[in-house]
Amino acid sequence: MTPSEPPAATNANARPVPIITVQQHILQEQKRCPGASGEFSWLLSGITLATKMIQAKVRRAGLTDILGSLGDVNVQGEVQQKLDVYANDVLLHCLSVRESIGVLASEENERPLTVHYESPNAKYAVVFDPLDGSSNIDVNVSVGTTFAILRRPVDVELNEVSKWVLQPGTQQVAAGYVVYGSSTILVYSVGNGVHGFTLDPSVGAYVLSHENIRMPERGKYYSVNEAYRDDFPTAYNTYLDKLRTGQFGQAYASRYIGSMVSDFHRTLLKGGIFLYPPTKDNPTGKLRLLYEANPIAFIAEQAGGIATDGTQRILDKSPDSIHERTPLVVGSPSEMQDFQRVMQEHAS
Ligand code: AHG
Ligand code: MN
Ligand code: MN
């Protein structure tokens, strides 16, 4: 540059783009709900803190002695991974200091754990899958956490702890998940739309990155473990055949990660359908209603999608036990309507 040239334009007048953290967002949402107290945002901050700790451990998974199995078997008869145990401990620790929580139920604990259930201030139960897709940890593939928050029903006594959590998904006051993927993203809803917050590792805050997520009307992908095809009910195979052969007006590609939360996250953003059908070995499916299917169904519906167990809306199902399983079919309205039509044709 010669001295006679004018100085380059500067950005001196540009204002920084305001960032909204998840804490700010929760407080804003709370203001819109009269009667909601600060306890609720304090509770959610327990989840955000725990998932930041889990993601820090996931990011160091290959560096620490954390890979592989701990040798124990959880209540589902599956081998627990070390990170499963760590993630569970962290969530229990962060949530058990919140006085508004009476009961905690986790995939990794056979029975619900009582926290402050005897306290008159304890209004909520939290259910969660601390680490979803844990068989993917050793191979650097995305895993996640799913959670839902339920209010103690008015007619349930403080010590009837199972009844705090055995409620249909329609009763969830908030639900969400975190994907520990190429970045860490928290997606949640308090029943007023779905919002996504990407963790900025340089400041350690979840920052609003996906405001008011809407699931596309139709997508390009279907997601199912096709190795079990021979064991699916006929109606599922009819539907999948029609998808593959373009009978719904377009060609589909398939994507299957094997972490429900990651497969769903793609479906939420890109549209399409995710299925975990019943199989001969697992006639009620593999996924758990309370802490896997319900939070996913809540998010899907809030974003304009649909979630069923093949015949019934997931959120209407009344659970009988904490670790109850359910088939899960969730996705964009268009794919879900095609799916439901095929199911009805087979039923009649
Ligand atoms: P988890 O790691 O919490 O036990 O869940 C694993 C689940 C779910 O994430 C995924 O959709 C499914 O297992 C994959 O199962 P298949 O290997 O049978 O497809
Ligand atoms: Mn899981
Ligand atoms: Mn799990």
Structure characterization notes:
The chain is of the alpha+beta class. The chain folds into two domains: 16-210, Fructose-1,6-Bisphosphatase, Chain A, domain 1; 221-347, D-Maltodextrin-Binding Protein, domain 2. 30% of the residues lie in helices and 22% in strands. It has eight helices and 15 strands. The protein has helices spanning 22-32, 38-59, 82-96, 161-165, 234-244, 260-270, 289-302, 333-347; strands spanning 69-73, 79-81, 101-106, 113-114, 124-132, 143-151, 172-180, 184-189, 195-200, 205-210, 221-223, 253-254, 273-276, 306-308, 328-331. The strands form three sheets. The protein has an eight-stranded mixed β-sheet, sandwiched between helices. A five-stranded mixed β-sheet has the order 12-11-13-15-14, with helices on both faces. The chain has a two-stranded antiparallel ribbon with strand order 1-2. Strand 3 (101-106) and strand 4 form a beta hairpin. Helix 1 packs antiparallel against helix 2 (38-59), helix 2 (38-59) runs antiparallel to helix 3 and helix 5 (234-244) crosses helix 8.
